[in-house]
Structures are given as C-alpha cells and as structure tokens.
Amino acid sequence: MKLATIGVGNAGSKLIDRMLEFEQETGRDLCRHVLVINTARTDLAKPDHVPEDRRVLIGDTHQKAKGHGVGGDGEVGAEVAKNDIDEIRRVFDDVEIHEVDAILVAAGLGGGTGSGAGPVVIDELQKMYDEPVYGLGVLPGEYEGGRPALNAARSLQSFVTKVDNFIAFDNDAWRSRGQTVEEGYEEMNRELATRIVTLLAAGEVDDSDVGENAMDSSDIMRTLDTGGVSSIGYASTDLDKPEGLLSKYKKKEDDEINSMDAAKIKGLVRRAVNSRLTIPCEVSSADRALIIFAGPSSMISRKGIESAREWLEQEADTVEVLAGDDPREDSDTLAAVVLLSNVTETPRIKEIQNQAVDAQNKIKELDAVREEEIASLITDDDNELDPIV
Amino acid sequence: MKLALFGVGNAGTRIVDQLLDAESRTDRPLTDGNVLAFNTTPSAFADTSHIDDERQVVIGDIHPDVSRPEDLADESGEDRREGVAGDPELGVEVARDDLPEIRRALDLVDDTEVDAAMIVAGLGGGTGCGLGAVLLEELASIYELPIYVLGVLPTSEESDRRAWTAARAVRTFVPLADAVFPIDTESWLASAESDDYDELNRAIATRLVSLFGAGERETAAISELRMDPNDLKRTLDVGGLATIGYAETELEEVSEGWYRRLRRLLGLDVPEREPQTDAVSIKNLVQRAADSKLTLQCDIETADRVLLVLSGPPKELSRKGFETGRYLLEDKTGTVEILAGDEPLPEGSRITATILLSNVTGVPRIETLQRRAVEFQREQDDLSASDPDDLSAATTLSTSDTQRSAGNQSTGDDQSAGDEQPPSDDHGFDFQEAELVDQSEADSEGESTSSEDETEEEPTPADGDTADDDTAATESESTGDGSAAENEPQKQ
C-alpha cells in the first residue's frame, strides 16, 4: 500500500517519525507523503525523519494557543484546528493523491491536540478525497487519569464515525516496570510503528509476478472496509542467516528443511494473536481478519499459510480471513502480523468510557460550585470587609 | 512559561530581586528582563541587586500625603514612615494620580515576549495592597495575558491593621487576577529559628522557578511530556487561590571508579550506570511534594486543578513512577483535571517534584485573617463612634498601629524603624501621635486632612461623625452590607 501519513499532536507526530525510521531501516517504502501538525512549537522540533517543510504549526495566532499547545483541552484543540483549516488545507494541496492508496491519520487521544484537532483534520480529508482515511489512535492508560480518559472517550466517537477504520493502541498494554519516561514512550512508538508498517507495507509494489500468495493493497483495504475499531497482533522469529560460501552451498541443499514447516508457521500466528494485541480484544468478535507473513519467501510454505488461515478462521469465528505473504528476501526475520478488523469486544474501551463518565461528572460538579466557592473564600462571614478598588 | 514580573512595595521588590537571582543561578530564563519594581519611596530599592535603575519606579512621591525621606530627615523612630505609611487607600489614590507614570514604565516591558504577567506584593502593606490593586486593574485592561498575583500574607505577629489590609487585598485581587498565590508567611517562619525571611524568600523563589521555569532552560534535552505554557495557564484558568508544593531527592554523586575508567581507556564499552531511583521512589517523591509545606497551607482535597512537573536526569525518571505519582494526585485531590510533565535535566544532581494546586478553597489561614480583620474593623468603628469629635481618628489609629508593626520590616513597605513601643489604647496618647503626624505633613499646602480623604474612599473606619445616628450609620455603612450595619447600633 502507498500511504499519505499525517501525525496530529505530540504522540501522533512521534509515531509517524518512528514509522519513517522503521521503513527506512527495513527498506520499505510505505509513506509517500508525510505531514505532522501540532499546536506547540517545541514539539514540532522533535521528529528526526520528518522534513522541516512538512511540519505545520497551527493556532500560533489563536489567543488560547499562541504556539504553546492547548493545555490538554480537546475542545481548544478542535477550535484551533477549525480556525486554521485553510492553512491545513493548503498543505494537503501538496499531496499527490493519485499516488497513494489511502491516508493514515495518527494521533494520541488523551492529549488536547490529537483528540481535538485530529477529527477536524479527518473531516477535511474526507471532504477533499475519495481515498479511504484510516485512523491510528493511541488510547491513554488508566494511570494517566480522568482528563485524558475523557478526551479519549469523546475523541474516539469522532474518530470512529469519521474514519474508514480506526486502529487502536492501548498504552496500558505496553507499560512495563523499569522504563524511564523517555524509554517508555519510545518503546511503545517503535512497537506500534513496527506493526503498522509491516501490515500496511505489504503489497506496496503490487507486482503480479511475486507469486500467488502475495498480499496486495486491495486485500488489506477490503479487510479494513468494515469500519469500526481494529487491533493488530504481531510475532516474529529470527532466522539464522547463512554466512559465507560454504553455508550458501549448504543452504541450497537444505532448502526444504530450512523452510518452516506448517506447524511452525501456524505457531507464529497463534503467538501473534495471543501475545499483546495493540488493543486487547475478544478475537471472536472480529468481523474480518487478515494475516501477512513478512520475510524471505523461501521460508513461508503455502501449507503453513493455509493452516494458519484455517486456525484464525476458527478463532475469529468468521469466514472472512485472508492470508498471504509479503516477500522480503533480505530480511533476517520472519514476522506474522494479524489484523483483526471491527472487533466489538474491547474491555479497555469500556473502561475508558466509564473513567470518562466519572471524570465528566467530577468536572461538572467542580464547575458548578467554582465561582461560589471562590467568592465565599475571599469574603468574610458577614461580608463586612470591602475591596480596596 | 515566560513571566513579566512586577514587584510592588518593599516585600514585592525584595522577592522579585530573589527570583531574578534564582533565575540566573538555575539557568532558566524566566523573565528575559521583563521586570519592573514600583514603590512609593525610593529607599525600598536600596537592597536590590538585580533590578536596573530605570526599572525601579517611584510613584506618588509628589503627593502631599506621601512622606518622602527628606521630609522625614528630622524624624526618627516610629515617626519615620516613608511612602504611604501603611495606608492602602492612600496607595490607591497615589497610584491613580500617577497612572501616566505607571503606563510610561510599562513601556519597558514587552508583553508580546511573555506568556503571563505576575504582580508580587506584600498584601499587608499600603503600597503592596493599594498600588498593587491599581496596577492589577491597569495590567488587566491593557494586556491580553493572564495576570497572576504573588501576595505575601502578614503573620500573627504583625499588626491587626496589616491583617485588615491583607484580608481586603485578597478580597480585591482574587476577582481581578487570573490567579492569586498567597504566601503563608506564618507557617514558614514558625519552623525557622528566627524571623528568617531569607529562607522563606528562597523557598518561594525555588518553587516559582521550578514551576514556571520548567522547559524554559535553553540547554534542556527534549522532553517527552513537556509542560507547555498553556498547560500552566489552563491549570490556573479557574481563578481563585493557588498554592505550590515541592520535594526533592538528591542523587548521589558517583565518581568514575577505576574499573570504568580502565574500560574507557581500553576503548571498551562502559556499562550503563544503574539508575538510583525506581518507580517507588519517584512515586514517593510525588507523595512528599503533595504532603510538603505548601506556599499556602490548605486542604488539598479542595483543589480544582493540579499540575505536576518532574525534573531530573532522564534516566532517573521512571515512567511507572511518574504515572503512579500522577494517579496518586488524582486520588488525593479528587479532581481529574491533572496535567503532568517531565523536564529532563541530563546533568542534574537531583530529582524534584513540583505540584501546583489551583483554586484551593479549604484555607484556614485566610479565614483566620478575615476574622482578625473584621475584629479590627469593628474596633475601629467603635472607637470612632465613641469619639465622634476626633476628626483625626483614622490617622491616630494608623499611627498607633505602626508601633505594633515596627519590628516587622520584612514584609512591610513602611520604613518604620526604631524601638518598638507597647501598643496603647489610651486616647490621649493616640491624639498626641496624631498631632505628630500632622506636623510632619504640615509643610504641604492645601493639605486635606487624611481622615476626610478616608471618609470619601472608605467610610467604614472613619465615619465617627455620623455613627451615633442610626439612620446615618446605616447609610454610611451601605458600601459594606446590611449585616455590618445591623451590628453597628447594637454595639452602642
């Protein structure tokens, strides 16, 4: 697939940056157009792989933003993006849309810019183009607290109704002890970039002579066609790289043995689904599913692909399961990536919604009494003291 | 967040000077030189070392009721009261008269270069409260910036009049400012050996610079969750009173041992140093900051919004600790509006947690202050009512009051010096004091007696002439409210 990618806010921009890094490292060419949008000038300086002229600051003339972020308030984020929509549209004009198959908008849903400006950007893209627009959203963890949960729960509604498919990523599933703040986010972004790029880069060339098992963009797009929320599973295994002349000779002989047997291939897929999904979900609630094996084609047996497909068909309880390979002859790993499209049972989203409702109630309670409490605090009991001016 | 700082009065000027000192020490450019200090007497500037001469502005020195140092050349002791002599109405009056002067000085500040303005003042002083209020009105009308006030509250050692002034200042500043940071002097001095205002001022400076200076350090490494100025702004957006908590953990200074040095010399990999902190110690640090002595002691459950800044070497900032700490704050304060950010300081030798609690409403100190102020005001009313012929009542009272605050220069903006005298309730004595004050002002022509002035501005303390007539009393009290007026006749 060929993508135009747009990162909104701090988390979205860093994700796009990591995607670019991963595709460069692995010789993929997925992101044909890149754009990052932010409300904080300092955050725009962070990406390493996004060209300077593809970074857009919005809201620098907005009274509440002034280039210093939106203070974690999604409503201000949306307002700022709406005000600067001409500016955003102008940058989109550079996108040669006929060169891409789809548009991907990445954002963190807990912050103000991603949750607020993200949906505004998507609205505009849907108006301008016929190509599908996919969302890639990072959901805040429980420990990030009520306000991020509220931003996310509200923004999730906008995202899911506006995009053609929403790929969710749950921060909580990726937290681990011993990480520093810096490492924690870095690691998550890399993991997510690996998954999303491995999935979407399959069939980027659409070259018909790669073989009948090869996945092409239309297969992926068909699977994503369901709308709703999707989750990605991933597992990989290192391959022993043959070294030197002797082993090269040896490899030719042992080709059949080296090729993974069907059980191993199936095992890899099982691991991908049972390990950490980008968002934990009930696999059987998936509407459609797709498996891609990325690695040297000699390693992937057709039998293995077929048995993996059958296994997932049962697990996901759907007949709409596609499986194929994405030949990467130079790769020293074999990776299986599983897309579960339109999963409807995602406990984490329920939790976020509950946390958000609580948060909204608390915010309303505080709002209701705020002025009164301040007035009573600064006034003595019988209001005998006068202000000075 | 870049701040324009405005020191008002003695205490305000001194704290601003300290802040500038902390700014230069910690390498966090906070003001970029956008600083002004206002006073009603030039001697308040004597001790400043970081404020340029052109940024030291004397206001009202030509006003007839303002005492200039040269007028007081022959005076000593408690008579030597420069400036507005603790009278906030006079502070307001001279500031209003000199508005063009104030506006001209404001041209020195580039408000497009800063994210907010902050007035720093002693709330118990005549200049801090009076001039501060006028400056606040002025800034609010000309700047499109949030305007914050850092106000030093008087201690219980200080005079009742100063408490009365401060309570009224709180009443005045809070509705006008975007947020007010009262400084709870009493609780800070209580733990100190003596009246160690240095420690207090340093503590204020540390907290403010850690909070507002986060992310302003030019050499800062890229922060994952940077505190943007708008994060602070949003937290303070709710108005009311704000307070700051702070805790730090010193990191052990690890010198490079022979093993590491040898490996480095041999060009081998030097193993990464193990971090000295983990999730638990970071969480505990946040906990300590929440439990720490706040700039204004309060019930933190009454906080409306909260902001947490964690600063230190990036490899010491555990993500889990950071997130657990943030969650702990949500739990302790009961609010969900919590923003948290990190400030990586690769060369730092300590980790600090700074917590901003905005719009706290459970503040016993403010209630105590108000009770004292009301009591003082009632006493004043009784005094002037029982002595209706004494036109100088108000002046008298402010003078006798001086004696009690004489030993307390640090937060005051009055240059009263000399031995403290016991407060006197004796009217004869007070009357003499009043005459002395009048003499000191006698050289100014067209001198309107200050008691009359006060009657116009603020009827409550000086309406002695009318107070024995019930109807008149009610009328004159009507600027306050009904309940005060109702109480009045009962006392007579």
UniProtKB/TrEMBL annotation, chain A:
Example of a GO cellular component annotation carried by this entry: cytoplasm
* Species for this entry: Halohasta litorea
GO-annotated molecular function: GTP binding
Q: Which SMART domains match?
A: Tubulin
* Localization annotation: Cytoplasm
Described purpose of this protein according to its UniProt entry? Involved in cell shape control.
Keywords recorded for this protein, A-Z: Cell shape, Cytoplasm, GTP-binding, Nucleotide-binding
Annotated GTP binding sites: G112, T113, G114, E144, N171, N189
Q: What is this protein called?
A: Tubulin-like protein CetZ
What family does this chain come from, according to its entry?
Answer: Belongs to the CetZ family.
The family database entries (Pfam families) matched by this protein are listed as: CetZ_C, Tubulin
Q: Name one GO biological process term.
A: regulation of cell shape
* Domain Tubulin/FtsZ GTPase, chain residue ranges per copy: 2-204
Automatic annotation (TrEMBL), chain B:
Occurrences of domain Tubulin/FtsZ GTPase (ranges): 2-213
Residue numbers binding GTP = G126, T127, G128, E158, N201
What does this protein's UniProt record list under function? Answer: Involved in cell shape control.
Please note every region of biased composition (Acidic residues): 432-472
Can you tell me which family this protein belongs to? Belongs to the CetZ family.
Gene that produces this protein: cetZ
Q: Where in the cell is it found?
A: Cytoplasm
Q: Which InterPro entries match?
A: CetZ (IPR032907), CetZ_C (IPR048737), FtsZ/CetZ (IPR045061), Tubulin/FtsZ-like_C (IPR037103), Tubulin/FtsZ_GTPase_sf (IPR036525), Tubulin_FtsZ_GTPase (IPR003008)
Instruction: Write down the Gene3D superfamilies for this protein, in alphabetical order.
Output: Tubulin/FtsZ, C-terminal domain, Tubulin/FtsZ, GTPase domain
The name this protein goes by in its record: Tubulin-like protein CetZ
Q: Provide this UniProt record's keywords sorted from A to Z.
A: Cell shape, Cytoplasm, GTP-binding, Nucleotide-binding
Low complexity composition bias: which ranges? 391-402
Tell me where the transmembrane regions lie: none
Q: Please give the biological process terms from Gene Ontology that the record holds.
A: regulation of cell shape
SUPFAM superfamilies xrefs: Tubulin nucleotide-binding domain-like (SSF52490)
Compositionally biased spans, kind Polar residues = 403-414
- Quote a single Gene Ontology cellular component term: cytoplasm
**Residue segments, region Disordered:** 64-86, 377-492
One annotated GO molecular function: GTP binding
